[in-house]
Amino acid sequence: MTHQIPVVDLELALSDDAPAELLQSVRETAERIGIIQVVNHGVPGELIDGFHDSIGRVLDLPREEKARLASPTGHPFRGWRQWPDDFGRLELERYNIGQFDSAEEAVAAGLSEEYAQLYTHVNVWPSQEPGLRELAKNYHDASVGVAERVLALYARVLDVPLSTFPIAGRPHYTTFVVNDYPTWSHEDVSSDEEKLLLLEHADGSVLTVLHQRGDYAGLQGQAPDGSWIPVPIVPGALQVFSGHILTQWTNDRLTSGRHRVVAGGTVTRRSTAVFWHPSLDTVIEPLAAFVGADGTDYEPALLWDRVKDNVENYLQVFGRPDQVAAWREGRPYVAELAEV
User: Considering its fold, how many domains does the chain have in total?
Assistant: First the structure.
């Protein structure tokens, strides 16, 4: 069986006139692959282009200028950094933006003092792009709106009320990242497995809303048989991945979208992702509407307990000695790259 990532007209799918075959395609894809592309999603093209053009100018700056945009405290999820492979070759360049600029802003938005400590490490806003902060906020908020609409669509195809999902609390917890993948000029590898720029994984969110730019289908989703499906670049489309929280809420009815990125193309590949979760005080557990007589194998867990140690957990798995040292000492980290 040949699997494909469907392109879904989101406005049509949510309308009273949604064709039955469209809703069936959405349900089957959500159950088997966990990735859809959406068009007619309500996010203005000029907002998408404006944000990507602005952050693109930042990522196109000379490396010595970008190095000054690294987190001043070495926080791996703030500001700019580069990610070399085991041979020192540039594999990924990343710009992270925290949901709030400070702990004080987080408290003003409704977070407790404890939860607000996630934001004691500041965002890094480049002076070269004075309008980026506002563009990023507008882009983030629009992406959250897409996630909420897609969850409403999934509730529809599962035949449950949207209120089934515990998303009423505010603020929702989000993370926001821009990824830049270089062109791959190294000729010592040939297969996709040998030139992975982002290893296969599924996100820990409820839903992740992505926008991709490039000249090749470097993003791949995993089919039920384990094979990999290219996610084609469709002008104006946004990609939406189901994450582990949605899978747990639905007691495995909906699958998490496993994906990876392979090298290729003639220009830098860029993607922007907003990872959408419920509020930090939400207990994550299978919802009653999806738990039958056989019960569930999932144990309930507070979302806060899952995310409060994200930095330490990340560094324990992926951190290199010099990066960990920078974090412990509270200073910027700029990776060393091999001479090419």
Answer: 1
Summarised one tens digit per residue, pLDDT across range 305-329 is 999 999 999 999 999 999 999 999 9
In angstroms, the CA 323 to CA 70 distance is: 12
User: How far is Cα 174 from Cα 98, in angstroms, rounded to an integer?
Assistant: 8
Q: Are 259 and 221 in contact (CB under 8 A)?
A: yes
Alpha carbon distance 61, 269 (integer Å): 16
Among all chains, which residue has been given the structure tokens 């282009």? Answer: 49
Three-state DSSP at 222 gives strand
Sheet harboring 7-9: ordered strands across? 7-9, 35-39, 238-242, 207-213, 269-276, 174-181, 90-97, 79-84
Question: Between the CA atoms of 214, 217, 218 and 219, what dihedral angle is there, to the nearest 10 degrees?
Answer: 110
Whole-Å CA distances, 272 to 20, 96, 211, 238, 269: 32, 10, 5, 10, 11
Residue 88 lies in a domain: yes
Q: Which domain holds residue 107?
A: 7-320
pTM above 0.85, yes or no: yes
339 in a structural domain: no
132-158 and 45-59 are packed helices; what angle lies between their axes, rounded to 10 degrees? 130
